[in-house]
Amino acid sequence: GSLIEQLTTEKYECMVCCEVVRIVAPVWSCQNCYHVFHLNCIKKWARSPASQAEDGNSGWRCPACQNASVQVPKTYTCFCGKVHNPEWNRNEIPHSCGELCGKKRQCLDCPHLCNILCHPGPCPSCPAFVTKTCECGQTSHSVRCGQSTQIHCSNVCGNILNCGKHSCTQVCHAGKCSPCQLTVQQVCYCGSNFKEVLCGSKEEFSDGFGSFSCQNICGKKLNCGRHNCKQVCHPQPCQLCPRLPQVVYRCPCGQTPLSKLLELGCVERKICTDPIPSCGKTCGKPLPCGSYEFIHTCESLCHEGDCRPCSHTSNIYCRCGFKKKVRLLGCFFLFLIAAITFMCDKRCNKKRSCGRHKCNEVCCVDTEHKCSLVCGRKLNCGLHRCEEPCHRGSCQTCWQTSFDELTCYCGESVIYPPVPCGTQPPECKKTCTRPHDCDHPVYHSCHSEEKCPPCTYLTQKWCMGKHEVKQLGTDEFVKSTFRLLNVGDCSPCMTCSLKFPIMCDGTLSIEMVDAKEIAAISIATKLTDLQLGDSVEISRLITKKEMKQARLQCDEECLALQRNRCLAEALEIDDNSDPFNIRSSGAKYSDLLKEDARKDIKFVSDIEKEMRMLVEAVNKGKHTKKSHCYPPMNRDHRRIIHELAQVYGIESVSYDNEPKRNVVITAVKGKSVCPSNTLTSVLDKETQSRPAPPLPHYKQTDKSSGNSGLSKPLKEEPVIDYFDVQD
Q1: Using alpha carbons only, what angle is made at residue 309 by residues 308 and 312, rounded to the nearest 5 degrees?
Q2: Which residues form the PHD-type domain (predicted)?
């Protein structure tokens, strides 16, 4: 009825194009869900890849019910399918032929066809009435045709059960009757044991001698009347007595026929109790002891009955078969001991069923190697551990459940129980209500983390040179601080070109350092406070006191200059003179660097070659900076790179942690220069020339430093280097 109304009023929409289905437009109706589509739309949909079934062989899927169809609709027919291209009649249902539907109803047991006019949607239920019998067939009732309900009466079923002897005692029921539940007594084949079984079961079968085998010795008298049957309880008649004269043809060992022994004078046997003549030869029957390599046989003379115990020795294998032992005692003792096995000391190296642990069982005979340990791995909740036996693959989800409400910090958002273990607190869009260190307005939402994010309120900050005031948030201020540490490009306010003289303790070495580098040394100690949201005044970081405390560490060059100065004063030599052409000889390398270079001359040569190529490339190219990253190396090699970089005027920084710590060098145009003599060439010259005698060592006290004696030698690497914080 709803389909008819929507199609008549043109309010029904096609699911493919989402347009209204007109009363004169060709349509197609799905026979499974009865949705109506434009014929052209359903053709396009059936040919599209999105409509294909998952298996790829079932055809195309209906857009509404996903029912697969093989054939693509090609013609426009009425709903009952009898008329092609039906014409629209104002007095009839749109897209129908106006005749009786005549389709078979969906009910399987309804033989009547649909008797209403051609219509969309499913056919209504059959209005006819039919007579149906109850399940047991004793009564009948008049019901609606196609009604699927079952009819039951109050009478006893009475049908014959599966045994064929008894009848069903249940009230009228659906389906087959239950098997007979009565029990009958059965006897075994030998007649010594009894048991009860269900009537009509397969175990009730009997062949006339009995119904089952009790697995005991039969014990019935044989046909001779003197001996008993020694077979296990069996259904057929017992065999003939094995000692009857007409059955026995050979001696007990089986080597000589009785006919030959009769010719030699042996007495002929008349009944089964008469003894069987012996041939007098060695028995030779195989004994149950021994092995595949050596079979033990009976050494007694031909005899009746069982053979005597073996007197030989036997090899006994351990239970896993890895080792064997030779039993010095006779095989006779093997039968006296129930289980004569021993265990070797070999431990099993196979993986257990979990795939994580080894078996480690001594003399293992297990085939499955099941792991008996507890898994113990943390579950997805992160709080509890798996208590199942050790297994492969991922552990199951935590079965712990909380019956308390789980709320956010402020309590606005709630997850009601039961709450699975490991569930995170719910998200809350309310403003954070936690106590904060600053008095600025809070802009972040409620969160489950104990620590709040940095304050984002804009504050006024002076630049380092006190030139201007900028609006900076705490997070932006931290980023600008990192720019001071040469992590990124410095802002225009931070690129102060002012140089400060830095001296060592002996006032011998002087180096010009940018103001931002000194500020970076001070700010590096304040990074923890900056990351926590605290504000730091940059102008207060560079004070006169810190400038005075900023000192270089004396190196071997300082000591050499001090000795030369003392020697020049004693010989009255002017400091500006250069009689030995020392100052124009090029770059100077420390003795420690030379000593390290002699140990690994190839490494130093490769490093210098890379540095020279880098300096030449940046000086000839368009870029002002050019960097090179060395692979991870040890501490001594990194120190060599840092010292060579100072000679070449190259910036060097170490990154990452051990053992992946590496060095990155950066050549700056105009600042980085290749020395006239490389370290390798200097070492070659020193090797060829005769080493000069060492200068006399004069003990002198540096008054400016206040320390007696010479300064301590330069360490291999400084403990704290603010320009290479990682080292």
Answers
A1: 125
A2: 11-68
